[in-house]
Amino acid sequence: KVFMIALEGTDWVTRKAWAKICEISRTEFSMVYQRLRVELEEKRNMDGEELNSKGLVEESEGARMIFLEGFNIPLIASTDLTALWYRLSEEKAEWIIYVTDVGQQQHFNMFFKAARKAGWLTDSDKTYPRVDHVGFGLVLGEDNKRFRTRCAEVVRLVDLLDEAKTRSKIALIERGKDKEWTPEELDQTAEAVGYGAVKYADLKNNRTTNYIFSFDQMLSGKGNTAVYLLYAHARIYSIITKSGKDIDELKKTGKLALNHAEERALGLHLLRFAETVVEACSNLLPSVLCEYLYDLSDRYTTFYSDCQ
């Protein structure tokens, strides 16, 4: 609270410290974004006068507060609200999704209620413009405690990604792929498998629950892992390549005859793709789509064995 008061005021020391924190964070985030090919667009156009004009903000001990019914603590009139105003009024956003750990649930409940009190949002959670808080659980170590290094420090995501890539490359070299591929191909494949394994391991779990981080499990070629899905994809692609067929032409002229039980089972599963995407998006649960893709890979593996 004291920090926020100083930041909103004219305390140049606090503002300078805040700018330094932002600079350090920006550098660290950019390392992760670069590896995951995420493009970030910064926005700085913030204006908090809209809240003042609504009469929602009260001064309390030098801080700008919003008192809300049903909560025993006030909401600090933070940049979250001014950022929301900007996204709604200037960018005309229809659906804004905030992704943080579940520990911040109360803050977002208060934040959204204040926005509704200001008239920026409707009372319905499903009416546009819409806001949602996507909370996620903790990542645990194999000791079932918060995932940390041996020195009890928080593990950096960039280090996890690099370690996954390194382990993936070692596994590929052990299989002799360094003799078949160029160094660039080896590096690209190790990156795709390593980064993909970390992302999929995070997405496949129900986002609200905690999960144990394990390189051995996520880089395994068996079970519900990205590596297993990648193998299935590679197998499909290999069959298409060896067939010499024009797939786009087959889509126009080819006919399906689902005579075998495994053909039928695979076909029926494929038909569920659209409804699965809708469910995953509507409920903000990537794990639903991951489960579908794993089941699809599993069914395809059975089909591949029984219907060669």
TrEMBL record:
InterPro entries reported for this sequence: Arg-tRNA-ligase (IPR001278), ArgRS_core (IPR035684), DALR_anticod-bd (IPR008909), Rossmann-like_a/b/a_fold (IPR014729), tRNAsynth_Ia_anticodon-bd (IPR009080)
One Pfam family named in its UniProt record = tRNA-synt_1d
Keywords, A to Z? Aminoacyl-tRNA synthetase, ATP-binding, Ligase, Nucleotide-binding, Protein biosynthesis
Query: Tell me, what is one Gene Ontology molecular-function annotation carried by this entry?
Result: ATP binding
Q: Residue limits of the DALR anticodon binding domain?
A: 229-308
User: Per its UniProt record, what Gene3D superfamilies does this chain match?
Assistant: HUPs, Isoleucyl-tRNA Synthetase, Domain 1
Listed EC numbers: 6.1.1.19
Which BP terms from GO are recorded? arginyl-tRNA aminoacylation
As its record notes, the protein acts as a catalyst of: tRNA(Arg) + L-arginine + ATP = L-arginyl-tRNA(Arg) + AMP + diphosphate
Does the keyword Ligase feature in the UniProt annotation? yes
Which family is this sequence assigned to?
A: Belongs to the class-I aminoacyl-tRNA synthetase family.
Q: What is this protein called?
A: arginine--tRNA ligase
Query: What organism is this sequence from?
Result: Eutrema salsugineum (Saltwater cress)
